[in-house]
Amino acid sequence: MILKLGTRKSLLAWAQSSWVAREVEKLNPGITVELVGIDTQGDKILDKPLSKIEGKEFFTAELDHALIEGRVDFTVHSMKDLSLDRPPQITLAAIPPRELQHDVIIFHQTVMDRLREGKEIRIGTSSPRRLTILPAFLEKALPQFLANTKPQIKFVEIRGNVNTRTSRVHEPEGSERKLDGVVLAYAGLERLSHDQKAAIELWKLLENTKIMVVPIQECPTAPAQGALAIESRKDHQVSLTALLKLHHPPTQAAVHEERVILGEWGGGCHQKLGANFVANKYGGKLFIKGEKPSGEWVVETRNLGKVPFSISEFTKVEASDLFDFKKRELSTAEQSALSHSEVCFVAHSRVLEFLGEEESAILSSKRVWVSGMKSWHKLAAKGVWVEGSVEYKGFDYFQTFKNKSLLRMKSKTAFLTHAESAIDDENAITIACYTHQLKAKNNEVPKKIIDSTHLYWSSGLPFSTVWSMLGTPEKQAEFSKKIHASGAGKTAAAIRARGIEPVVIDADL
Question: Whose CA, among 198, 305, 315, 343, lies 20 to 30 Å from 139?
Answer without folding.
Answer: 343
